[in-house]
Amino acid sequence: MVAVKHLASPAAIPRLPACLSVLSYNVLLPNSQDGWWNYKMYLPPLSPPDEDISTWEYRKSLLIERIGLVDADVVCIQEVSPLSFEEDFKFMTENLGYDGVELFRKGRFRPATFWKKDRVELVCPAQHKDRTMLTTFRLNDCDEADSQDNWHVLNCHLQAGKQGGRRVRQIFEGVTTAYKAAKKLKEETPEDMKLIVCGDFNGGSECGAVELVEKGMVDQDFIEDGEQVSSKAKKLPLSAPLNDAIDMDREDDNPVPSTLVVPELISIMIDQGNIETAYMEPQFSQQVLDRLTRIYERFAKDSPGMQMTKADVEEWLTLINGRVGRGTEFRNAAKYMGWKEPPIDPDEKKEDRPPIVIPDDGVLTFSDFVAVYLDELRQGKFWGIAWDLAKLDEPLDVDEVFQARYDRMYCSASLEPTVVLDTISTQPCPNKFEPSDHLPVCASFQVRK
Q1: Which residue, among 136, 139, 151, has the nearest Cα to 17 in the 3D structure?
Q2: Which end of the chain is less packed: N or C, by CB atoms within 10 Å?
Q3: Cα–Cα distance for residue pair 365/348, rounded to 1 Å
C-alpha cells in the first residue's frame, strides 16, 4: 500500500501514470433559470453591493477556477438543472476541455459526469438508476497490460430528508449495477472490480447508506431516524467493503474535513423541550415565535381585525421572495386564505391548469402565518426561514457553524488512493469564495499492487 499524499486546496491533482483522478462536487442548483431562491442560502442577507456573488455568473466563475485548477480526469457533479444544463456547463468543454459528458435522465436536481476523452475512454453506455449514474472507463495512458482494465465510477446524489431506507436501496442498486456491468464486460473477478463511488450521500456516518458501503452490509437491526433502513439484510456483491478514500492514511493532526459547512440554525430555531418530538415533529423555539409575532403584527396593524389581508400578504411575499407567485410560502398562504385546487382533469396539461391565486377576500391568521413557516421548517429549509427573519428586520443571533461530512468518495479493495485533495472552509457556505453550500472531494487512484 502506498502512502497517500494529502494536499490542501487550492491545488492541482497530480497526473500520474496508470492513475484515475476523480472530483465530486455538489455545486448547488444553478440559478440561471431555476433555483431562484439561492440568494437565501447566503446569511446574513447580502447587501446590495454584494448581491452579485449569489448569481450564477459569479458562482460559475468560481467553479471554472476551481475545477480548472484541479484538472481531474473525471468530474462528477451533483445538482444540475435540466432546464439550463447545456448553457450552464458549456464552460466544461469550451474552457476546461471536458469533451465527454453524461447527464442523468430525469429529475429536477440531476447528477452529471464529465470526462476528458484524451485521458479516458467510455467503454459502454452510462447506466441510470435511482439517483445514481454509472460510467465505465478505460485509461488511455496505461501500459498495454493494463489498457483493458475497466474503471467504474458511480456518481450519487442520494435522497435527502427522512429517507434512510431509500438511500440504502439507492446505493445498493448502484453498486449492484456496477457488479452486473463488470460481469457483462467479462471481467475475470467482478467482485473485485475497480470501482469508485462518490457524491452527496445526504447523511453522515450515522446513516444506513454509509454503513452499507463501509461495512459491506446492513440488516434489519440498523435504525436511522427511528426506522429500519431495510426489512432484511443487504450485502454488497463485492469481495470486501469499500474503503473511505478521503479518510485513508491520515495523521492525527489532519482530520477529514467537513463538506457541509453552514450556519448552525437547528438549536436556536427548534424547541428542544422534547428531543424525540423536536426531530420527528419540530416546533419553533420561543425566540422564533416571538419574531414571527412581531413580524405578523407589523404587517397586520392597519388591517381590520389585526389580520393579514391580501395586500399585506403580497407585501410580505414580495419582500421575502422578490415577487408574488413563487415559493412554498406563497402556495401555502394561498391555501390557508381559501384558494381551492380545482379537480384535476387527466387530459389537461399541467401548464394549462388554473394558476394559484390569493383570494381577494382572504385573510391569513397568525396561526396560519406560523403554519406556513412550520411547513418550511419541516422541509428542512432552516436557511430560508433564517433569511426571511433577517430580511424582515428580526434576525436570529447565529454564532455557531454546523459541519458535517455528506460528500464522500470510496474505492473498492482493488484500488488505492495515491493523492487526496482537501477543501476546507471555516466560514458558512456559500460565500464570496465558495459557490455552494457543499465543498468538493477529490482523489487520484491506482490499482492496488
Answers
A1: 139
A2: C
A3: 34
Amino acid symbol at 258: S
Q: What is the mean pLDDT of each run of 10 residues along the chain (449 residues)?
A: 87 94 98 95 94 97 98 98 96 97 94 97 96 96 71 97 94 98 96 98 94 96 91 96 94 90 94 66 93 97 89 97 96 96 77 87 96 94 96 96 96 97 96 98 95
Output the DSSP codes for 368-426: HHHHHHHHHHHTT-HHHHHHHHHHTT-------EEEE--EEEEE-TTEEEEEEEE---S
135 contacts 115 by C-beta, under 8 angstroms = yes
β-strand pairing of 401-404 with 260-263: antiparallel
Q: Read out DSSP for 231-294?
A: SS-EE-SSSSPPEEGGGTT--TTSPPPPSEEEE--HHHHB--SSHHHHHHS--B-HHHHHHHHH
CA-to-CA distance for 45 and 321, rounded, in angstroms? 13
Nearest to residue 237, comparing CAs of 185, 171, 186? 171
3-state secondary structure of 131: coil
Q: Copy the grid coordinates of residue 229.
A: 433502513
